[in-house]
Each structure stands twice: as structure tokens, then as C-alpha cells.
Amino acid sequence: VVVEVDLTSAVTGKKLYDDSLKAAEWFDVKNTTKAKVTLNNFNTTRAPGTYVADASLNLKGLEITVPFTFNLTIEGDTATMTGSTTLTRKALELGQDSDPDADWVSEEIVVNVSLVAKAKS
Fold first, then answer.
1. β partners of residue 88
2. 0.90 exceeded by the pTM?
3. Cα–Cα dist 7/29, whole Å
4. Contact, 39 vs 55, CB < 8 A?
């Protein structure tokens, strides 16, 4: 599975934070507008309907791989997926100039994903 993330769409609800996210030390949207996530090596877990995959995130030319655990249910023509993973800012060189000690933004960033897909008719 390959997912492209539009970095210009990131919003926090506060203009100062939204502007900061676009800056070079964060998402650097002037030079790159997309991040790419690739999921592979899917495996089942002991919990029914729960899976884990390797999630490789490529952001600003840096790539990290973390486990991505998710639940998947399929009912009729609808698939519902929810999952989460944790990224570290340091590994992605995010905010290391303005907040290296994680006083304002946590070093660990939890990413929650929710998606509903319907089969084509």
C-alpha cells in the first residue's frame, strides 16, 4: 500500500502553529509538498481482525520505518480500518532548532489513521 500525504493540508487550528508547520525545519512545504508512506510485510496478530505492517515514511528525503498496528473489518462492500503508530521527531529532523528538548511539541508523535472504503459498484 502506498499513500501520499499532502503536507500543505496540515492544520492545527492555530495560525502560529499552522505557519510553523510549513517552515523548513518542520514540513518544509516550500521544497516538498508531499510525504509518502509505504506499508508492507503485513502480518496477523493474535487478536482477531488486528494486523501489523511495516510503515516506511519518507519525509523531506529522510525515511524511517515503524510498526503500524491496525484493525480491519469488512461488512458487505465496506471496509473500515483504524490504526496507529508512533514517530519520533528527532528521526525525521522535525523542529530540532526551535524545540530540540520537546518543551512545546512532544518528541514522540502519535499518528492515528481512520479510513472507510467502499467497493465500486
1. 108
2. no
3. 7
4. yes
